Amino acid sequence: MADNVDVVEGCRLPVLRKNQEHEDEWPLAEILSVKEVSSRKLYYVHYIDFNKRLDEWVTLDRLDLKKLQFPKKEAKTPTKNGLPGSRPSSPERERKSLDLNVQTTTTTTATAPSRGKTLPAPKRKAEPPAPLAPQVSPAPPVPSLPSSAEASQAAVYPAARESTTFKSREDHEQLTSLTTNGTAARRLIPPQPGRKRKANCGGTDEVWKSTLSNVGVVLNQDSQDSSDGIPTAPRMTGSLVSDRSHDDIVTRMKNIECIELGRHRLKPWYFSPYPQELTSLPILYLCEFCLKYVKSLKCLQRHLTKCNLRHPPGNEIYRKGTISFFEIDGRKNKTYSQNLCLIAKCFLDHKTLYYDTDPFLFYVMTEYDSKGFHIVGYFSKEKESTEDYNVACILTLPPYQRRGYGKLLIEFSYELSKVEGKTGTPEKPLSDLGLLSYRSYWSQTILEILMDLKPDNGERPQITINEISEITSVKKEDVISTLQYLNLINYYKGQYILTLSEEIVDGHEKAMQKRHLRIDPKCLHFTPKDWSKRGKW
Amino acid sequence: MSKLSFRARALDASKPLPVFRCEDLPDLHEYASINRAVPQMPTGMEKEEESEHHLQRAISAQQVWGEKRDNMVIPVPEAECNIPHYESLYPGEFKMPKQLIHIQPFSLDTEKPDYDLDSEDALFVKEKEITELQFEEMIDRLEKGSGQQLVSLQEAKLLLKEDDELIKEVFEYWSHKRKNSGALIPAVKQEKRDSSSTSDPYVAFRRRTEKMQTRKNRKNDEVSYEKMLKLRRDLSRAVTILEMIKRREKSKRELLHLTLEIVEKRNAMPDLGAEVMAEALAQRALVKPVYTIPLLPLSNSQYRHPDLNELKDYKKPEKTEPVRTKRKYEKKPKIPVSAAHHSGPAFFSPKDLNQYDFPSSDDEYSQIVSGSSEAEEETDPDGNFAFRRKSGCHYYASRPEQSGNWPWMSPTEGGLGDPRFRFCLTSLNAPRRCVGLARRRVGRGGRILLDRAHSDLDPGLDLASVSPLDSPLHRRSTSDNHTSDLSSPLPPPSSKTPVDLSQILLNIKSCRWRHFRPRTVSQYAPGSGGLCRGGFRDLSRTVSGLTRTLSAQTRTGPGQLPVNVFTVEQYQHHQEQVALMQRQQLEQSQLQQQQTTATTAPQPTKTQVCVFKGLHLSSAPSAPQPFLQPNSSSPSQPPSTPHPTAAAAALGLLGNAAPSTTQVLIGNNLCLSVPTSRHLPRALATVPASALKLSSNANLPSLPNLPNLPSLENHEEEKASLNSLSDNTVAMEVT
């Protein structure tokens, strides 16, 4: 048909997909990219209100062209507001409006029709045409249409701030007027991408475009902690709060078709910065034990003749039955840590690989069989955390999901915190699966305690939130949110009480019956190190 | 109370919450309206994702059913299991170790090549009949040898150790393959230096330019770094100082031992007349180097007026001298008899001297002189006395035939018996005149006696009494109350000498000639100290034929009587100093006792001390006693001894040098700094003794530079530190 020519990036239309019951459904989707493979056009679609992991390449016949909506510049921003669930595009838009410092509704997202670019392959994208910008930054394929190239470089999106994590989009919109945090004339280093690696906290190191002030852009005053400044790079911890690179069209698309790891073939969910030349392969082969990536089965065979590892290259600090945990120092074992991060990134949307792995410890959970210790999942943890994080990123590899391993990982992370004598919390943002897993773990852990409470001297059993927190090492806020979520907190006759409903009790008992995998603290051989005294991670 | 209209209190995490079963609270629902007082906690998810369809579905399913239904889970892309070739890929079995696996550091670093051969390579390898591993190693080297620029064939030949033919083939194969497919070992993109890669999504694992912030508001980095630097500097300085103290104390100990030894040896010799000592001194004087460091023993230092504080410090060098003397003395049996008097170790360069900022004792000097290190000193049997040639020093050939023919020897030994070794120029205050060569000793009741010696100088010396040298003193003494009386009758000189007066004055002024004047010494004492150092040598060259002098008792003459000008103020000051010195003396009394028994005049010396003490303790300010130099007189000069100087010097050393080498140190410096220190006493005269000492010490750092020893400046800093240290040492000894 002739009209398929019109299906370009940014278009929205219903796209056919099978749901879990294998029924056809036609959710609204956005075309993120178009490519042609053997004279057949393929469309990369993001199902709106569905997680990005379900994004996929579809053929033309799955598009409902009758309901095609062309991207409209003017309509864009309102649309965004109307579609709060469509996360991938919105931050981009917000940032752009910041950059421009204009109250225009200029569409700057990847959906901009003017871009008219196709992605020939998962290869690196061509430069955004950016017709309005005579000289755009060469390096990043930022899908932006800044009215001023300089402004586009400014990239002042206060993303990495904790505080913005839960900020509504409306808040972001207000950022159109920018203010430098008190320091009007900030020196900046290179005119180009205008960002610097830096901690997102610590006011001294932020880099600011002098051109920004020229353009008359003022930075938002809102930052509660003035030291925050504008992050020019992702925060240095493990999880990625939305930031500019995250909104990059490249990173919004899966780039690896398939990964073979041991017995399993995995379909990546998200972008991962494996070497670009490997992204065009139908299958990326990984050594099951050292996680080295090679381009072909032959290479993997060769590699396996040279690789002696049959377990993660770290110290085993826990073993019970077939389950073991290995501790890997991100500084001492860089290669493995990086390989682990690369594969983890395939399944973690909010993970950042921006910085090296030095400040992290990686706890890899393995299951033993006669071939060796097979990786099941892992979590990373900052050696020193400012904010009580006891987990940075956490992942159960897809083949092992929904079998209780995730909860086991979480349980293990809290066991470590117990040994350390601290309470901890996972780094935010949580993914959907992360939220469900943690909520489930918290609920079961807290309910376990509440149900075990015995009345002492005939008095009604009671417990404080702090006590729960101390027993479980779950941070107080998480305890409260769980109690709330379970609807256990009630105000009764002038005081707060905890009430256990029958459904809760039954549900808990049923769930606990299914929870076979538990961490046995006696099997943990772990001595926390005081990393602050080491000077180096 | 069916309905509550008030707001619930905030949730208190530390307040116990009673736990109820819902069935126990049938009326709970009535309170439901206010249950929402607890603020809703954030989920921790990104806002946009929170509302995602499948999540919401799962959450609501969980809330409805208490658990997730299978069809309500969040869908994910499928994973495939059970790859058929798995078994062949991972052959063999791995037995689980009994122990927890503990990885050894660096055990992971294998020498295996990172490059993995692919099927295309396999063909090539088969064709070339090399092993796969060999091929991989070669490619690995080529890959890793290439940066932006590919390895050239020449470089490849250097990189690879195979034969040229194979290298060429592999190289060509490699270059061709690389041209087609880029780097053969795929690696994650590195950041570029120019920071152009900051937003390249394929760049990962960037180096952290700053350490991740682990504590907020920690801004002290630079400041603390500087503090650490300073701390390190301070600590290392302290270490240096302690090192020096250690050396100093060692030296002091050795000094003590040597002094004891010298006394014993002299007693055994018996060198009661100090001839041997004098010879040693003269020898040193001859060999003595170009610059003025108080190396010479001022054997008659007791003649000088010591009643001011800096003088005390100043005396220190003198006290150390017996050590040197003794050292010479030890040598003596060898050297004078067998060989070179001139070849002593006395030559040393200022540079050496400055190796240590504060040579605190003779031991250090000799150490410097000999260039020996501490370690050497310990291993060398001769210790400090081992002769070591120093570069840049002149060594004279030995003159054995002349041995014994030194001017300081008595005529019986073929020497000249030059009196300059035991006498010094002496001036009196009132009448203001110079009495020529004389030496002082203390008579009964603390009286000071001057033993005068005849010399050729005598005729001219009368004129010297009004020399410019004295002018400041003169002014001072005239402004003072002259409560003085004649402390002792002095024998007049009787003979004439042709020596040019102006030359003598010149000698005095240029510190080559010692000059002594009772009473107001303080103001020119440093100068005279300098004189003392250089005096003998000059004298020995210009003066000859002096007759030997006898003790004052036999030579009473119409004399220029030294006037003891003594004011109340001075007296009090003097008292303080005396008290101070008594303390030191008490400390040393035991030692002295040992020493004095070895000398020929033990009794006098000892009683002298006692008398001296008693005198000052009992005397009232209103009734000044005729003592002149209580400080220096105490340990010295038994009147009955014919050759008291050497003994006195030794004793003086014992009395004063031993307690504090620090003071010796300072004295050394003072001697060097004649010009400035001259002006000190006046200002200091009224200050309490200890304060005086400290302040004079405090003045020291700037002084050492004065006397044309520019190299000293290099050590100014350490000097200052050491100086302040010695400050403390002194203070501690005083109190």
From TrEMBL, chain A:
It catalyses: (S)-lactoyl-CoA + L-lysyl-[protein] = N(6)-[(S)-lactoyl]-L-lysyl-[protein] + CoA + H(+); 2-hydroxyisobutanoyl-CoA + L-lysyl-[protein] = N(6)-(2-hydroxyisobutanoyl)-L-lysyl-[protein] + CoA + H(+); (2E)-butenoyl-CoA + L-lysyl-[protein] = N(6)-(2E)-butenoyl-L-lysyl-[protein] + CoA + H(+); L-lysyl-[histone] + acetyl-CoA = N(6)-acetyl-L-lysyl-[histone] + CoA + H(+). GO terms for biological process: cellular response to oxygen-containing compound; double-strand break repair via homologous recombination; positive regulation of DNA-templated transcription. Residues 251-528 form the MYST-type HAT domain. Keywords: Acetylation, Acyltransferase, DNA damage, DNA repair, Metal-binding, Nucleus, Transcription, Transcription regulation, Transferase, Zinc, Zinc-finger. PROSITE patterns: MYST_HAT (PS51726). Residues 128-144 have a biased composition (Pro residues). The keyword Calcium does not apply. It comes from Periophthalmus magnuspinnatus. This is Histone acetyltransferase KAT5. It comes from the Eukaryota. It is found in: Nucleus. Its EC number is 2.3.1.48. The active site is at 427 (proton donor/acceptor). Pfam families: MOZ_SAS (PF01853), Tudor-knot (PF11717), zf-MYST (PF17772). The lineage of its organism: Eukaryota, Metazoa, Chordata, Craniata, Vertebrata. Residues 72-204, 222-241 are annotated as: Disordered. Belongs to the MYST (SAS/MOZ) family. GO terms for cellular component: NuA4 histone acetyltransferase complex; nuclear lumen.
From TrEMBL, chain B:
Signal peptide: none annotated. Keywords: Chromatin regulator, Nucleus, Transcription, Transcription regulation. One of its GO terms (cellular component) is nucleus. InterPro entries: Enhancer_polycomb (IPR024943), Enhancer_polycomb-like_N (IPR019542), Enhancer_polycomb_C (IPR009607). Pfam families: E_Pc_C, EPL1. Residues 319-383, 466-499, 621-646, 698-735 are annotated as: Disordered. This is Enhancer of polycomb homolog. Residues 611-735 form the Enhancer of polycomb C-terminal domain. Belongs to the enhancer of polycomb family. Its main location: nucleus. It is found in: Nucleus. It comes from the Eukaryota. One of its GO terms (biological process) is chromatin organization. Residues 7-144 form the Enhancer of polycomb-like N-terminal domain. Residues 698-712 have a biased composition (Low complexity).
